[in-house]
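Example 3.2
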Amino acid sequence: MARPLFRHESSLRHDTGSHPERAGRIVAVERELAARDWCGFSPEDSPEATVEQLLAVHPRPHVERIRALSAAGGGRIDADTIVSAGSWEAALHAAGGAVAMVDRLLAGGATRAVSLHRPPGHHCETAEPMGFCLFNSVAIAARHATGVHGLERVLVFDWDVHHGNGTAEIFAGAGDVLFASIHEFPLYPGTGRPTEVGHGAGEGLTVNLPVPGGTGDDTWVGLTEDVVLPIARSWAPQLVLVSAGYDAHADDPLAGCEVTDEGFARIAAAAHRLADELGVPLGMVLEGGYDVDALARSVAATLETWSAAPGPAPSAPSADPVVLRAREHFAARWPVLQGD
């Protein structure tokens, strides 16, 4: 069965100058994937998102702000977030690739798909671009899945080292999106405490799993296997979306975690097995990752994992103290985490 990979040349025209989030990220990823025959995926150009698709998440003044700033030649939104003349087109394709990925997963016969674009999106809140992000592509994709395809439960699993504050804010009151995030804390943007659990219809559907700097493979994998997966199984999402950042890598210059290529493969394998067990599709939207070589290798490791048959679960639960504390913290809301 085909595994589509959505990409577009406009990602290279989002000109950030001398900036960690630069065009070379996409160049490195695509070069690595091409050298591996695209890891079993089939690249194709993404469409542009429609304004209506953007408006399902972002208010019109937000959308018009990005369009107008790009049309005027660009400028800085804040110290980290840059718009250039090519950014409007790039951002439309980044959101459009995520939407097309969902369409293919839910109506087009694919069970695995990816959207590899820039700028990233998970820091962008409902009405505030920030953290290198202009529109929140994974949120637009999730809302497309519920609003257009009629899904009642979507999981967004964010493994970027920075908390996906935008996605958390967008869905904090929503009862149809479960947001789970592993991230370094304290670190930009300063959100993502375990006590931030959502509100109203979404209360309990935000699962924040902060880790200290220096945390490596075993803790990240343990949190995935022994916290995220049990919660997800009990909630039974109809679609799994991954906000896939690779800046928790040991080589990344913007954070302090110590995840390896193998660690990302193990995290990806867990998500792959979850989707297989539930019989639901799995899609990935690229977020961060700023050592371009580590980023390229880790993306390739993810795609190679998803192109193979799901492997077995670990033979024993994690004894990592960070994992055990997280299970204890969330057990009242999620009884599946309670010990025997």
